[in-house]
Amino acid sequence: MSLAEHYAGTNCAISFELFPPKTSEGIDKLCNNVKRLMDFNPSYFTCTYGAGGSTQGTTLEVLKCVREITGLPVASHLTCVGLTAEQLADYLTEAKTLGVEHIVALRGDPPKGTDKFEAVNGGLHYANQLVDLIREKFADDFGIAVAGYPEVHQEASDAQTDLDNLKRKVDSGADIIITQLFYDNADFYRFRDACVKAGIQVPIVPGLLPVTNFKQAQRIASMCKAGIPSVLESAMGESDEADYQFKVGVDHARQQTIDLVENDAPGIHYYVLNKSDAAEKLLDGLSLGVDC
């Protein structure tokens, strides 16, 4: 099934991203939150994947659990970091056997302690090569998502170079683009317009992460080079009280969601950090999802 099919309807499709917990207790908590997130009619769930294969088993365990709980399609992240093309193909074979329907194909960040990505001997250098590998060896067995960067990838020399790289990933066979998180919708709209002008025709799905405290917002902005609008920064800086900061961050994500829907976003991908409380608050009362 193509990932693009999830966005073919008239409703705004939503999806949720998880990460592999370190303990069995963490997996139990994650699965409980997944059950609560099902109230919002998601189309699918994704789970991140540790660099160099460090969470291969846990990622697949999470996806197997989510698939059993929800009956929905699931997507595994997969990066080129630390793995040969043969090892990547082996992982894809295992994922297929376990019923994983989709792959989020990424180059991956350089390992900790290094500033530059280096492919291992026999490995892949770019995400478009990973998309090529999937399409060559698995044809249409997987839907494929790739990453887009509304505020430009931090390693790209300029916006046009970043856009050219994105188009190569799409031309290699990606079904959709899921963006990195952003906090100003104007950045997404500029990015979407540039993609259309470049001839990119696949669905471009905005990715949102509601910030629930000011320090988190600052840390994430630093890591992802995502700008924080002055109005959000000012509001979150008014009080250190946890409930207040949670409300401000969730309200901002809710307004982002409403605005994106009104401006024809085909869907929204929520980075929920294995929790459900922020997503529940921001989505409450909004008519999104596959059954709406």
Report on this structure.
There is one protein chain. The chain has 292 residues and is of the alpha/beta class. The protein has one domain: TIM Barrel (Alpha-Beta Barrel). It is built from ten helices and eight strands. It has helices spanning 24-37, 56-70, 85-97, 127-138, 159-171, 185-197, 214-224, 230-236, 242-262, 277-283; strands spanning 13-18, 44-47, 74-79, 102-106, 143-148, 176-181, 204-208, 267-271. It has an eight-stranded parallel beta barrel with strand order 1-2-3-4-5-6-7-8, surrounded by four helices. Helix 9 crosses helix 10 (277-283). The longest helix has 21 residues, at 242-262. 43% of the residues are buried.
Short description:
The chain has helices at 24-37, 56-70, 85-97, 127-138, 159-171, 185-197, 214-224, 230-236, 242-262, 277-283, and strands at 13-18, 44-47, 74-79, 102-106, 143-148, 176-181, 204-208, 267-271. It is of the alpha/beta class and 292 residues long.
